Amino acid sequence: MPAPHPWSVLLTVKRWSCDQNFGSFPIQHHGHEQIRQSQVIGSWLGFSSYNGGEMNGTSKMMDFLEEPLPGVGTYEDFNTIDWVREKSRDRDRHREITSRSKESTWALIHSVSDAFSGWLLMLFIGLLAGSLAGLIDISAHWMTDLKEGVCLAGFWFNHEHCCWKSNTTFTDRDKCPEWKSWSQLIIGHGEGAFAYILNYLMYVIWALLFSLLAVLLVKGFAPYACGSGIPEIKTILSGFIIRGYLGKWTLIIKTITLVLAVSSGLSLGKEGPLVHVACCCGNILCHLFTKYRKNEAKRREVLSAAAAAGVSVAFGAPIGGVLFSLEEVSYYFPLKTLWRSFFAALVAAFTLRSINPFGNSRLVLFYVEFHMPWHLLELVPFILLGIFGGLWGAFFIRSNIAWCRRRKTTKLGKYPVLEVFVVTAITAILAFPNEYTRMSTSELISELFNDCGILDSSKLCEYVNDFNSTKGDDLPDRAAGPGVYTAMWQLALALIMKVFITIFTFGMKVPSGLFIPSMAVGAIAGRLLGVAMEQLAFYHHDWVIFSGWCSQGADCITPGLYAMVGAAACLGGVTRMTVSLVVIMFELTGGLEYIVPLMAAAMTSKWMADAIGREGIYDAHIRLNGYPFLEAKEEFSHKTLAMDVMRPRRNDPPLTVITQDSMTVEDVETIINETTYSGYPVVVSRESQRLVGFVLRRDLIISIENARKKQDGIVSTSIIYFTDHSPPLPPSFPSMLKLRSILDLSPFTVTDQTPMEIVVDIFRKLGLRQCLVTHNGKLLGIITKKDVLKHIAQLANQDPDSILFN
């Protein structure tokens, strides 16, 4: 569950606030692509400043410039936001609007519109995300069918829509005259070996064309559009800034290439990338509202709601989407965000329902309804499916991470287009001969979830019929016919192919989701087990395990239910979702009575996978990429102290500091040029090392540049001071530069004897970027978020330099 930000914790943290102004808490973080280990002391910094002056009773948390400079208080790329400062800024803004609302009618209207803007933004996000999801669904469905043939009535119709107006009988509905396969178009007939080879060839050519177009668009226009996007969104929601990741180009290219990648027949899904698409919508629409455009913390609340809307349209599961955002991706999820996520998910689902992309009034292709109850003894096979899901999840994560690491560390990573070409070629060549791998994965899951009825013509429903025992729509358990046995071995081959090909597909430079391939693996395994159980009950209904609840001629076992439980188990094994997974699955099926089997499978799957490896696939990819993500779910159980982790260490150079009133502009510029830290502690003097506060590198650079241009008399020998009053100097000295306004007056501090367990908890719950370490009031060192991550990695016997984001 995401860690809240209990601002009340501020009271328990030792703060430099006596006899001074209260400052905000700028916890700005460092761009870390080039930081060496020796430089980590000040990296990812952002502290507030402390000064011996009289306490100011103003409600403002910072001594702002009379005219705030553009750029001061903003963040550079690959930095982490200062949660506490952003929240305090928003509170100040809100207080100001509230106080003004009593002065005039116009101010009151402004106050009301400000309060309503969040809901209006959610409405826009829901509408845009739902519309894009509908567009993606319709386009992908059409282009998937394009690999096999074309509609003569209109090339823009997919196979199903093409045959709607056909007069063919129900059994021949797939052979309508309006739809022509490529062999029928080219050589005039669809039978025979040559026609098969021609169709095979066209299938492979279209698949290669789609995937190559996708990878070239990603490589050329939006490199961030590849992959699932969920690991990066988790990192961004924890406060990290990756500029362009949620931009307009990423949105456009991801929408187009997602359709191409899904249509190519690769073993990937569109569900994960739809979360990325929805978050791009949220980020772009935030620019319409000043409240969200100028505040990074508020924007992350919007992105949490957008992630919920993404899952809502991906699965047609609004409540599951909200729970997914809460359980899986969000770092900070206040109650207000919960309500807004619910509203955004509702609007998105309603929009998609209005578009009706599949023509069946359902939001997903594999919606299904089961009517038969399940029996208590069936929990045993359900738990077996949970064990299979956990084993598959752990196997997939280890194999995929090993392959992705190989891609990053060898020459393989330099040839993304070739990799996509080879994987697509292998997938298409292996997929075409088997009808269960040739069809799109969503259609396959739909087929596997399906409960066989009288009119079903699928091979999976070719049972030996005894119509004398049929009662209404419920068909009794029947003996499997030759079609079912053929389908069984074809599904077994499909299972083997999906298990291995997905390992190499996820992580390529095309948009690739993991939900659908994982569900397909589980659904195939579940259907195989379900048919086996059904035949066992049919031929051995007098066994002890079946007697009493499964008499001859009764409909006891629903193989489609086993497929659904298997799908949930495998998805849970890979992602380690539990609550949101069960809700998504029952929203998919409309069956409340199947919650217990789904819960049993999801929990068994999670326990099994956790026993082998603690990380889900998204956390594993976050660690692989070195993102600065401090996992809120893991306990820190080691007995180390703040002094063991802080910088500088014994043999390191001393901490780089700025004095409060004795350094010149030239001295400060030298420090900035010689170091790459993102901020510097300010002390009374080098001798006393009494802490005054903290100033950010970016703010220093902007303020000094601005002063040189606009303030008379500022030269290299001008003194910079951070106090309320200028220090006494001879009249011959050049003008002095007062920079108290950019100083953070209340940095978070801990003593050198504070247990790291408490320090890690403070970092997690307040979203800190760093913390100063003192001893008897004197500055000793600094602990940054990166230091905490490196320390945790060292204690887990991992490479501490793996934290360096590349």
From TrEMBL:
Keyword terms: Antiport, ATP-binding, CBS domain, Cell membrane, Chloride, Endosome, Golgi apparatus, Ion transport, Membrane, Nucleotide-binding, Repeat, Transmembrane, Transmembrane helix, Transport, Ubl conjugation
Database matches in SMART domains: CBS
Summary of subunit composition and partner proteins: Interacts with NEDD4 and NEDD4L.
Organism name: Anser cygnoides
Segments passing through the bilayer: 116-136, 200-225, 246-268, 274-290, 302-326, 376-395, 415-432, 487-508, 514-533
Bilayer disposition of the protein: Multi-pass membrane protein
Main location: membrane
Catalytic activity: 2 chloride(in) + H(+)(out) = 2 chloride(out) + H(+)(in)
Domain CBS: 646-710, 736-802
Matching Pfam families: CBS, Voltage_CLC
GO molecular function, one term: ATP binding
Protein name: Chloride channel protein
Localization in the cell: Cell membrane; Endosome membrane; Golgi apparatus membrane; Membrane
